Amino acid sequence: MPSAPVASRFLYAAAWLVGRLPRALQRGLGTALGELAWRANGREPRVARRNLELALPGLAPGEREALVRAVMRETGRSALETLRLWTARREATLRLVAGCDGLEHLEAAERAGRGVLIAAPHYGSWELLVEFMAARGPFSLVYRVPESAAGDGFLRLARGGANVRLVPAEATAMRPLLRALQAGEAVGITPDHQPKLGGGEFAPFFGVRALTLSLIPKLAARTGAPVLMGYAERHEDGRFTVRFEPAPADIASPDILVATTAMNAAVEAVARRDLRQYQWTYKRYTLRPPGSGEANPYQRPR
């Protein structure tokens, strides 16, 4: 394991213990935790509810609440499942892959020799996709650095397997990612994280303007690397199908608004495959366009 603080190793040991629970028990416990979170109506279900109000305003209130409940149950399963994926051997993790759809797109992109950009939305299991890609060769993974050193050390232990290169989501990320693509390697970036102001463009996402990461379009335009949407979609039995789809051609447009709009449309199409599997508990719309007069939609009225 990479060098890490003692606290990070303690967290990893705790995750390992939970990750070793029998899969059926783990899934049942995750479902129960999600149900409990929904009933407690804490931060996560409130954020999910607000996101769905914004993104899917046509849903009837009862239909929306049923979806919030389903999202929380899926979120609970995913949380415990992630602990298993973070602490298991790669060969055991990959046994959860029931199949791969669109592998021909990935293989064609690899043969082109310009590197591959994997735009991986927060849908299904991002962590399983990381393991799938790293099993094929070097994979640079852009990640948001936790505020605590213990948390960062834990993530480096959890994700620091063979062929995985962790790149902090900072202003300096462009250089190592360019090197990886120029070497013909794969780079994975989540396209639906809200960047800081100046790090993206406000583009529509489910009909609402959202500050959208411009890193993927800029890398695609600069290197000519093909961009694929990649995700691991969960089945009811807890196994997954890994899917790869060509991203819209406009994702490499020099017009960043055009590029980010195309990218958001592709993420939205993935999310609509099974709305329960998308990360609605994330505050996607916090930052509003400067000068718009729009308020943070997650702030409670005083």
From TrEMBL:
GO molecular function, one term: acyltransferase activity
Keywords, ordered alphabetically: Acyltransferase, Cell inner membrane, Cell membrane, Membrane, Transferase
Keyword Membrane: yes
Subcellular localization, as worded in the UniProt entry: Cell inner membrane
Listed InterPro entries: LipA_acyltrans
Protein name (database record): Lipid A biosynthesis lauroyl acyltransferase
Native source organism of the sequence: Arenimonas soli
